[in-house]
Amino acid sequence: MRSFWKELPILVGIALLLALLIKTFLVQAFSIPSDSMQNTLQRGDRVLVDKLTPWFGSEPQRGEVVVFHDPGGWLGETEKQDSGPVAEGIQKALSFIGLMPSAEEKDLIKRVIAVGGDTVSCKRGGKVMVNGKALDEPYIFPGNTPCDEKPFGPVKVPEGRIWVMGDHRQDSLDSRYHQNLHNGTVSVDDVVGRAIVVAWPVDRWSSLSVPGTFDQPGLSAAASLAPTAGGLAGALPIVLWRRRRLIARAGRDG
Known about the structure:
- This protein is of the alpha+beta class and about 250 residues long.
- Helix content is about 25%, strand content about 20%.
- It has 3 helices and 12 strands.
- The protein has helices at about 5-25, 85-95, 220-254, and strands at about 25-30, 45-50, 65-70, 105-115, 120, 130, 135, 150-155, 160-165, 185, 190-200, 205.
- The strands form 2 sheets. Strands 1, 2, 3, 4, 9, 10, 11 and 12 form an 8-stranded antiparallel sheet that branches. A 4-stranded antiparallel sheet has the order 7-6-5-8, with no helix packed on it.
- Strand 6 (about 130) and strand 7 form a beta hairpin.
- The longest helix has about 35 residues, at about 220-254.
- Its EC number is 3.4.21.89.
- GO terms for molecular function: signal peptidase activity.
- Keywords: Hydrolase, Membrane, Protease, Transmembrane, Transmembrane helix.
- Its main location: membrane.
């Protein structure tokens, strides 16, 4: 029988392999780098990101908080800080197994406001509108307005893309500020996953659920078209009946 010390490297290797598989396919830790999601998330919070559901074809939904790769120039050029070889080595090792974010990765975290097919807009002094429905946004940072500092739209979100905004509206360079590229929308292919829970610090542990305003009836673009489609479907038999009467009358008169 092998001694404990001979088996220890094998156990450590298995543990690292499992951690790597979990990071790659299931859950990854992400550190909040800015104040753009206050008060929902604070700078330095650690959130767990669900990476599993995208593997099964699930796409981001309205109201979810998602982590995504920089679509191109959103973060700008950031100066790399030299933390020393030891600290840098530890960070690389921990980021490899998903316990720390990588220093090289350029990821952002925002809330999904609209998805492909939606029309989103916001006028100064008003609320964010999605498919004609006003959003009640209790998650917005106290004292902020929905969009007074940067009104926008209407923007038609293309299929396969999302419109994102930070909860701290006056401190978030989100979709509103990048409309020169794809009208500010982000490809779902750039989404790493959905942030599901604040895991650290312990006293801030909480789940990141979808606010109720995104469940209001008629918010879906498809649902907003339903009355029109229903009206056309209901009118069609009447139009056909009337047309048959006119043809019959013309035949009698002829």
